[in-house]
Design brief:
Blueprint: E1 11-19, E2 24-31, E3 37-43, E4 50-52, E5 58-60, H1 63-73, H2 81-97, E6 102-104, H3 105-119, H4 121-131, H5 137-151
Parallel strand pairs: 4-6
Antiparallel strand pairs: 1-2, 2-3, 4-5
Helix pairs in contact: 1-2, 1-4, 2-3, 3-4
Length: 152
Amino acid sequence: MKCPFCNYLESKVIDSRPIDEGSCIRRRRECENCKKRFTTYEKLECINLMVIKKDGTRESFDRSKIINGIIKACEKRPVSMEQIEKIASYVEEAINKTVAREISSKKIGELIIEKLKDIDEIAYVRFASVYRQFKDISTFIEEIEKIFKEKR
């Protein structure tokens, strides 16, 4: 495994443990050159899943796009990378449980929103505003009012 700090190709595994209910292995590694430590994840490669975008085009499923979208929504919020990874794993697991090899981006967005709402309401509204393409301030207000009604 290539070191992200010095690009040396040799590292040793210090610790391995299963995560996400055994669907992934987290490995803590140490570079044999610079001695810095880094984490890698080993995951079973699944059959290629296609995402149907809003405009009808198709592209391969990319977990990193989910993570990047959630990171943007959670910017300057008290949401850890571990929580973000858990959302991405939940979405990926839910998608893999379906028989279909194609899924709409709308369904993926709804799965993300479902989990974000429980973790951080601000991040939820941010993500929903982009995902649902809020047109004006009244749409924001309606969404925030829904949150208040659900809390009561």
